[in-house]
Amino acid sequence: MAATLADGETIMQNCAREPEVADLGALLNAMGANIEGAGSSTIRIKGVSKLHGARHRIIPDRIEAGTFIIAGALTGGTSESPDAIPRTLLPSCKNSPKPE
């Protein structure tokens, strides 16, 4: 976040690829930052002189949504996570062990 107001260009490599990182990049860009690659392994940030306010809806917490979904499955009940973004939950489900 500090790099958005720094002089010049900052290149970060081996960055976290979580959806929350991409969401933060989207918020900062909406505030006037110049960020490319947020959510990928390489993020490029060109410093700007100032940021401004912006409206942004933070993405739902995928860990919390997954916890409620699993709790519903384990108890034989139901659970709803209407605001969850399925593509953010799939990586967790894909690597889960298959039941025997």
Q: Provide mean pLDDT, rounded.
A: 88
Tell me the structural class.
Answer: alpha+beta
The fraction of residues assigned to DSSP E strands is: 5-15%
Radius of gyration from the alpha-carbon trace, in angstroms: 18 Å
CA-CA gap between termini: 45 Å
Sequence of secondary-structure elements: EHEEHH
Largest β sheet strand count, sense and barrel closure: 3 strands, antiparallel
Strand order of the largest sheet: 1-3-2
Helix content estimate? 25-40%
Helix count equals: 3
Shape: elongated
Number of strands: 3
List the helices and strands and how they pair.
Blueprint: E1 9-13, H1 19-30, E2 34-36, E3 42-46, H2 62-75, H3 86-94
Antiparallel strand pairs: 1-3, 2-3
